[in-house]
Design brief:
Radius of gyration: 19 Å
Structural class: alpha/beta
Order of helices and strands: EHEEHEHHEEHEEHEEEHHEEHEEHH
Distance between the termini: 39 Å
Low-confidence stretches: none
Strand order of the largest sheet: 3-2-1-4-5-7-12
Strand content: 15-25%
Helix content: 25-40%
Oligomer: single chain
Protein backbone atom coordinates (compact mmCIF):
# COMPACT_ATOMS: atom_id res chain seq x y z
CA UNK A 1 0.00 0.00 0.00
CA UNK A 2 1.18 3.52 -0.84
CA UNK A 3 -0.36 6.80 0.29
CA UNK A 4 0.22 10.46 -0.59
CA UNK A 5 0.69 12.72 2.44
CA UNK A 6 0.67 16.51 2.26
CA UNK A 7 2.61 18.32 4.96
CA UNK A 8 5.59 17.05 6.94
CA UNK A 9 5.45 19.26 10.02
CA UNK A 10 4.68 18.38 13.62
CA UNK A 11 1.74 16.14 12.72
CA UNK A 12 2.83 14.96 9.27
CA UNK A 13 6.20 13.62 10.33
CA UNK A 14 4.64 11.51 13.08
CA UNK A 15 2.15 10.16 10.55
CA UNK A 16 5.03 9.06 8.30
CA UNK A 17 6.62 7.17 11.19
CA UNK A 18 3.32 5.51 12.12
CA UNK A 19 2.68 4.48 8.52
CA UNK A 20 6.20 3.08 8.17
CA UNK A 21 5.78 1.11 11.40
CA UNK A 22 2.81 -0.55 9.71
CA UNK A 23 4.65 -1.26 6.46
CA UNK A 24 2.94 1.49 4.49
CA UNK A 25 4.95 3.51 1.99
CA UNK A 26 4.41 7.27 1.92
CA UNK A 27 4.90 9.87 -0.79
CA UNK A 28 5.25 13.22 0.99
CA UNK A 29 4.72 16.73 -0.36
CA UNK A 30 5.96 19.70 1.67
CA UNK A 31 6.93 23.18 0.54
CA UNK A 32 9.02 24.26 3.56
CA UNK A 33 12.65 24.98 2.72
CA UNK A 34 15.05 22.40 4.11
CA UNK A 35 12.53 19.59 4.25
CA UNK A 36 13.91 18.18 1.00
CA UNK A 37 16.89 16.92 3.01
CA UNK A 38 14.76 14.78 5.33
CA UNK A 39 15.35 11.05 5.44
CA UNK A 40 12.23 9.25 6.63
CA UNK A 41 11.48 5.49 6.60
CA UNK A 42 9.53 4.08 3.62
CA UNK A 43 9.17 7.62 2.32
CA UNK A 44 9.67 9.34 -1.02
CA UNK A 45 9.92 13.06 -0.30
CA UNK A 46 9.24 15.95 -2.68
CA UNK A 47 9.59 19.62 -1.90
CA UNK A 48 6.42 20.81 -3.59
CA UNK A 49 3.54 23.13 -2.78
CA UNK A 50 0.12 21.58 -3.25
CA UNK A 51 -0.86 24.59 -5.41
CA UNK A 52 1.86 23.71 -7.93
CA UNK A 53 -0.49 21.45 -9.85
CA UNK A 54 1.97 20.66 -12.66
CA UNK A 55 4.55 19.36 -10.20
CA UNK A 56 1.91 17.45 -8.26
CA UNK A 57 0.74 15.83 -11.51
CA UNK A 58 4.29 14.74 -12.38
CA UNK A 59 4.68 13.19 -8.92
CA UNK A 60 1.39 11.35 -9.30
CA UNK A 61 2.55 10.10 -12.70
CA UNK A 62 5.63 8.67 -11.03
CA UNK A 63 3.55 7.06 -8.28
CA UNK A 64 0.52 5.93 -10.22
CA UNK A 65 -0.42 3.30 -7.61
CA UNK A 66 -1.56 5.91 -5.08
CA UNK A 67 -5.24 5.48 -4.24
CA UNK A 68 -5.57 7.49 -0.99
CA UNK A 69 -4.41 10.94 0.10
CA UNK A 70 -3.90 12.12 3.67
CA UNK A 71 -4.26 15.89 3.44
CA UNK A 72 -2.45 17.31 6.46
CA UNK A 73 -0.78 20.41 4.98
CA UNK A 74 -2.12 23.57 6.58
CA UNK A 75 -1.40 26.94 8.08
CA UNK A 76 -2.32 26.55 11.75
CA UNK A 77 -2.62 28.42 15.09
CA UNK A 78 -5.82 30.13 16.13
CA UNK A 79 -4.27 33.37 17.37
CA UNK A 80 -2.20 33.89 14.21
CA UNK A 81 -5.25 33.33 12.02
CA UNK A 82 -7.01 36.28 13.67
CA UNK A 83 -4.07 38.53 12.77
CA UNK A 84 -3.45 37.14 9.27
CA UNK A 85 -6.70 35.60 7.98
CA UNK A 86 -5.72 35.92 4.31
CA UNK A 87 -2.91 33.36 4.59
CA UNK A 88 -5.20 30.87 6.29
CA UNK A 89 -7.98 31.07 3.71
CA UNK A 90 -5.47 31.11 0.85
CA UNK A 91 -3.72 27.92 1.93
CA UNK A 92 -6.38 26.03 3.86
CA UNK A 93 -9.29 26.72 1.50
CA UNK A 94 -8.32 28.11 -1.91
CA UNK A 95 -5.08 26.19 -2.38
CA UNK A 96 -6.49 23.00 -0.93
CA UNK A 97 -9.54 23.23 -3.19
CA UNK A 98 -7.38 23.33 -6.33
CA UNK A 99 -5.38 20.37 -5.03
CA UNK A 100 -8.45 18.22 -4.31
CA UNK A 101 -9.91 19.15 -7.70
CA UNK A 102 -6.74 17.76 -9.28
CA UNK A 103 -7.11 14.56 -7.27
CA UNK A 104 -10.67 14.26 -8.55
CA UNK A 105 -9.51 14.69 -12.15
CA UNK A 106 -6.81 12.06 -11.58
CA UNK A 107 -9.35 9.54 -10.31
CA UNK A 108 -8.08 9.53 -6.71
CA UNK A 109 -11.28 9.17 -4.75
CA UNK A 110 -10.23 8.50 -1.13
CA UNK A 111 -9.20 11.37 1.16
CA UNK A 112 -8.33 11.53 4.84
CA UNK A 113 -8.50 15.17 5.91
CA UNK A 114 -6.85 16.76 8.95
CA UNK A 115 -9.70 18.84 10.29
CA UNK A 116 -9.89 20.40 13.74
CA UNK A 117 -11.91 20.48 16.95
CA UNK A 118 -12.01 24.25 16.52
CA UNK A 119 -15.03 23.80 14.23
CA UNK A 120 -17.27 23.14 17.26
CA UNK A 121 -19.49 25.50 19.24
CA UNK A 122 -19.61 25.64 23.03
CA UNK A 123 -21.76 22.85 24.44
CA UNK A 124 -23.03 22.18 27.97
CA UNK A 125 -20.58 19.98 29.81
CA UNK A 126 -17.91 20.64 27.13
CA UNK A 127 -17.96 17.11 25.62
CA UNK A 128 -18.62 17.19 21.87
CA UNK A 129 -19.76 14.42 19.55
CA UNK A 130 -19.57 14.54 15.77
CA UNK A 131 -23.20 15.70 15.81
CA UNK A 132 -22.55 18.65 18.14
CA UNK A 133 -23.27 22.12 16.70
CA UNK A 134 -20.45 23.78 14.81
CA UNK A 135 -19.52 27.43 15.23
CA UNK A 136 -15.84 28.10 14.57
CA UNK A 137 -14.65 31.30 16.26
CA UNK A 138 -11.43 31.99 14.34
CA UNK A 139 -10.31 32.16 10.70
CA UNK A 140 -8.38 28.93 11.30
CA UNK A 141 -11.48 27.13 12.56
CA UNK A 142 -13.62 28.61 9.80
CA UNK A 143 -11.11 27.51 7.16
CA UNK A 144 -11.41 23.94 8.43
CA UNK A 145 -15.20 24.15 8.55
CA UNK A 146 -15.44 25.61 5.04
CA UNK A 147 -13.16 22.96 3.60
CA UNK A 148 -15.07 20.17 5.30
CA UNK A 149 -18.22 21.44 3.59
CA UNK A 150 -16.39 21.60 0.26
CA UNK A 151 -15.16 18.03 0.66
CA UNK A 152 -18.66 16.86 1.51
CA UNK A 153 -19.96 18.47 -1.69
CA UNK A 154 -17.15 16.87 -3.73
CA UNK A 155 -18.01 13.46 -2.28
CA UNK A 156 -21.69 13.89 -3.16
CA UNK A 157 -20.99 15.12 -6.69
CA UNK A 158 -17.92 13.20 -7.82
CA UNK A 159 -18.20 9.71 -6.30
CA UNK A 160 -15.42 10.42 -3.80
CA UNK A 161 -15.14 9.40 -0.15
CA UNK A 162 -13.62 11.30 2.76
CA UNK A 163 -12.88 10.68 6.42
CA UNK A 164 -12.37 13.99 8.21
CA UNK A 165 -10.37 13.60 11.41
CA UNK A 166 -11.29 16.41 13.78
CA UNK A 167 -8.04 16.59 15.71
CA UNK A 168 -8.08 18.02 19.19
CA UNK A 169 -4.86 19.32 20.83
CA UNK A 170 -1.77 17.27 19.91
CA UNK A 171 1.18 17.45 22.31
CA UNK A 172 4.47 15.69 22.95
CA UNK A 173 6.82 14.04 20.51
CA UNK A 174 6.81 10.71 18.70
CA UNK A 175 6.71 8.15 21.52
CA UNK A 176 9.47 6.14 19.85
CA UNK A 177 11.61 9.15 18.90
CA UNK A 178 14.64 7.94 20.84
CA UNK A 179 14.70 4.60 19.02
CA UNK A 180 14.55 5.97 15.48
CA UNK A 181 17.63 5.28 13.37
CA UNK A 182 17.57 8.67 11.65
CA UNK A 183 17.37 11.39 14.26
CA UNK A 184 15.90 14.52 12.70
CA UNK A 185 15.61 18.16 13.78
CA UNK A 186 12.70 18.23 16.21
CA UNK A 187 9.44 19.83 15.11
CA UNK A 188 7.00 20.17 17.97
CA UNK A 189 4.40 22.77 17.09
CA UNK A 190 3.42 25.68 19.36
CA UNK A 191 1.10 23.94 21.80
CA UNK A 192 0.70 24.35 25.57
CA UNK A 193 3.47 21.87 26.38
CA UNK A 194 5.99 23.66 24.18
CA UNK A 195 5.15 26.99 25.82
CA UNK A 196 5.64 25.45 29.26
CA UNK A 197 8.94 23.91 28.14
CA UNK A 198 10.20 27.38 27.19
CA UNK A 199 9.61 28.54 30.77
CA UNK A 200 11.11 25.35 32.19
CA UNK A 201 14.33 25.85 30.19
CA UNK A 202 14.54 29.57 30.94
CA UNK A 203 13.76 30.74 27.43
CA UNK A 204 10.64 32.52 28.72
CA UNK A 205 9.99 34.03 32.16
CA UNK A 206 6.42 32.87 32.68
CA UNK A 207 3.64 30.85 31.11
CA UNK A 208 0.66 33.01 30.20
CA UNK A 209 -2.76 31.69 31.22
CA UNK A 210 -5.21 33.18 28.73
CA UNK A 211 -8.00 34.04 31.12
CA UNK A 212 -8.86 32.56 34.51
CA UNK A 213 -12.53 33.59 34.52
CA UNK A 214 -13.97 30.97 32.18
CA UNK A 215 -17.00 29.03 33.36
CA UNK A 216 -15.01 25.90 34.13
CA UNK A 217 -14.16 24.08 37.37
CA UNK A 218 -11.08 26.23 38.04
CA UNK A 219 -11.63 29.20 35.72
CA UNK A 220 -9.14 28.13 33.05
CA UNK A 221 -9.91 26.67 29.64
CA UNK A 222 -10.74 23.00 29.25
CA UNK A 223 -9.01 21.16 26.43
CA UNK A 224 -8.50 17.62 25.18
CA UNK A 225 -4.76 16.98 24.88
CA UNK A 226 -3.83 14.00 22.70
CA UNK A 227 -0.39 12.42 22.37
CA UNK A 228 0.94 13.05 18.87
CA UNK A 229 1.65 9.32 18.45
CA UNK A 230 -2.02 8.51 19.12
CA UNK A 231 -3.09 11.11 16.57
CA UNK A 232 -0.70 9.66 14.00
CA UNK A 233 -2.07 6.17 14.61
CA UNK A 234 -5.60 7.46 14.02
CA UNK A 235 -4.51 8.29 10.47
CA UNK A 236 -3.10 4.78 10.01
CA UNK A 237 -6.30 3.22 11.33
CA UNK A 238 -8.42 5.45 9.09
CA UNK A 239 -6.35 4.36 6.09
CA UNK A 240 -6.41 0.64 6.87
CA UNK A 241 -10.11 0.61 7.73
CA UNK A 242 -11.21 3.22 5.19
CA UNK A 243 -13.85 1.21 3.34
CA UNK A 244 -15.23 -0.67 6.32
CA UNK A 245 -15.52 2.51 8.39
CA UNK A 246 -18.51 3.74 6.40
CA UNK A 247 -20.32 0.43 6.81
CA UNK A 248 -19.70 0.41 10.56
CA UNK A 249 -20.81 4.03 10.94
CA UNK A 250 -24.32 3.34 9.68
CA UNK A 251 -26.46 3.78 6.56
CA UNK A 252 -26.45 7.59 6.75
CA UNK A 253 -22.67 7.64 6.21
CA UNK A 254 -22.24 6.70 2.57
CA UNK A 255 -19.32 8.85 1.45
CA UNK A 256 -18.38 11.36 4.18
CA UNK A 257 -17.45 10.57 7.77
CA UNK A 258 -16.17 12.97 10.42
CA UNK A 259 -14.45 11.54 13.51
CA UNK A 260 -13.27 13.11 16.75
CA UNK A 261 -9.61 12.33 17.43
CA UNK A 262 -8.80 13.18 21.02
CA UNK A 263 -7.95 11.55 24.33
CA UNK A 264 -11.55 11.70 25.50
CA UNK A 265 -10.36 13.33 28.75
CA UNK A 266 -11.01 16.94 29.78
CA UNK A 267 -8.05 18.79 31.30
CA UNK A 268 -7.92 22.41 32.41
CA UNK A 269 -4.87 24.58 31.90
CA UNK A 270 -4.20 24.63 35.63
CA UNK A 271 -4.49 20.84 35.79
CA UNK A 272 -1.98 20.54 32.94
CA UNK A 273 0.45 22.77 34.85
CA UNK A 274 0.05 20.57 37.94
CA UNK A 275 0.72 17.44 35.87
CA UNK A 276 3.89 19.03 34.48
CA UNK A 277 5.06 20.04 37.96
CA UNK A 278 4.47 16.54 39.32
CA UNK A 279 6.64 15.02 36.56
CA UNK A 280 9.33 17.69 36.21
CA UNK A 281 9.54 18.37 39.95
CA UNK A 282 9.46 22.08 39.35
CA UNK A 283 6.67 24.63 39.55
CA UNK A 284 6.28 26.76 36.43
CA UNK A 285 5.95 30.50 36.86
CA UNK A 286 2.64 31.76 35.48
CA UNK A 287 0.88 35.00 34.79
CA UNK A 288 -2.74 35.61 33.89
CA UNK A 289 -3.38 37.38 30.61
CA UNK A 290 -6.54 38.29 28.71
CA UNK A 291 -8.64 35.78 26.85
CA UNK A 292 -7.43 35.21 23.30
CA UNK A 293 -9.68 36.23 20.46
CA UNK A 294 -11.15 33.09 18.93
CA UNK A 295 -10.91 30.99 22.10
CA UNK A 296 -13.79 29.12 23.71
CA UNK A 297 -14.17 27.98 27.30
CA UNK A 298 -13.54 24.41 26.43
CA UNK A 299 -14.26 21.19 24.61
CA UNK A 300 -13.18 17.58 24.77
CA UNK A 301 -13.89 14.64 22.54
CA UNK A 302 -16.41 11.88 22.63
CA UNK A 303 -14.38 9.30 20.70
CA UNK A 304 -16.87 6.45 20.52
CA UNK A 305 -17.47 6.81 16.78
CA UNK A 306 -13.74 6.59 16.00
CA UNK A 307 -13.45 3.51 18.20
CA UNK A 308 -16.40 1.91 16.39
CA UNK A 309 -15.52 2.74 12.81
CA UNK A 310 -11.71 2.69 12.49
CA UNK A 311 -10.87 0.49 15.49
CA UNK A 312 -8.81 3.23 17.12
CA UNK A 313 -8.40 4.35 20.69
CA UNK A 314 -5.67 6.41 22.37
CA UNK A 315 -2.89 4.53 24.15
CA UNK A 316 -1.12 7.36 25.95
CA UNK A 317 -1.95 9.93 28.62
CA UNK A 318 -1.06 13.58 29.09
CA UNK A 319 1.62 12.44 31.52
CA UNK A 320 3.18 10.22 28.84
CA UNK A 321 3.42 13.16 26.46
CA UNK A 322 5.12 15.27 29.12
CA UNK A 323 7.57 12.48 29.98
CA UNK A 324 8.42 11.88 26.30
CA UNK A 325 9.02 15.59 25.69
CA UNK A 326 11.12 16.08 28.83
CA UNK A 327 13.28 13.11 27.84
CA UNK A 328 15.01 15.20 25.18
CA UNK A 329 15.23 18.52 27.01
CA UNK A 330 18.86 19.46 27.39
Amino acid sequence: MKVLLTGCGFIGRSIVYALADNGIETVVLDSVKGTENLSLPLCSFYRCDITDLESVSRILDKHSDIETVIHSAMVSAVANSVKEPYEFYLQNVSGALSFVSLLKDRGIKKIIFASSASVYDDVPGFMVTERSPMKPRSPFGRSKYIFEMMLRDFCNAYDMKCIALRNFNPIGIDHYYGTRENQLPLRTGSNILEKIIKVYTGEEKAFIINGDDWETRDGTCIRDYIHITDLAMANVKALINFDSAFKKAGPEYTNYLSLNIGSGIDVTVKEFLIAFRNIAGEKIATTVGPRRIGDIGGSYANIQLAEKTIDWKPQFRVEDAIIDRLSIVE
